[in-house]
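#structure-requests
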Amino acid sequence: MPNNVLYFPYIDVPRSIWFTRTLLYWDRVGVIMPLEFIETPERLHPFTRDLLISGLLTQVFPGHYLSGVRKFSEVFLSYLGSRGAELNMRRRRFEAQSKASRRRNRKEIHLEKLGVIPVHMEKLEGVAEGLINQGLARLTNPPWLSIEAKTAEEFMYYLAFVLGGHKEVQLTPITDQQEKLARLRMISRRGQLDSSLDRLQIEVLEDILPAPNREISVWEIEKFKEKYGSHLSRFRRSVEMELVSLMDIKEAELRKRRLKMFKDGCDEEINELKVRMKESKWPSIVFGRFCALLGAIPIVNQVASPINAAYTALGSGGPKEINSPLAYAAYVQTKLFRD
């Protein structure tokens, strides 16, 4: 079971109930960050900076790992080539949006609103030149490269899964960006999942991991994890192991009964966690929707996606059955927010 996760696509982590739950239940939480932020931590949001100081958040520097991924740029650029005629649409859109961003350069407008996303050069490791040559990126604010929005989104998925799967990192990618998950689902729409199993996972996770219903301070999270961190992690792992075993039950009614028995059996442990949280002056405890990253799932069909590209770059070959938490994450996450 994965005990460590990697937040993406942003450098600053969200101050949200969702991310509080991530910090509480996972042993280690990483974030992708260029090396230059070591010397300029004041550029980070205070919440991100405080989490790093406390040790609750770990920096993952792309420059330390990507040079060892031999085909990092080649594989991603090859994936882009598979997009066919869509690339021409992206080029035209990027050119129009780039002109708009230059015209409005003196105004306070975030580039993402214009369909252009800035990505730090350290994250690109050789991809930048290819994107510029294809008319999908422009170096306007070194060391940041302005990239066409859809291409940038796909690249950040690719980067997160390459870094997360690197033998020296081993962090499972996780994100709260619902619209970007929906975008990735559209790219991978030919992949198939058992829809009843998909609903099953959402049902379990919505009902079973308690967390405070308000933003809490870094100090509060740190103090609570010092006392109960092993309990939280152990409970989450038991939930994940149960989900993995439920995947083997094909008959829907039997799965439903097994699920109810499991939930009933968790009541005592859930109540104990709620009591501990209320003792910490967290009076309102909720069970929110949560992106779980679990067992293994086959990749069905030849689906061109940033996730498959990441496996190729890591040397895992083309689409096949991959028995790893990382593989499952790619598909469970893309389905969680399908509505």
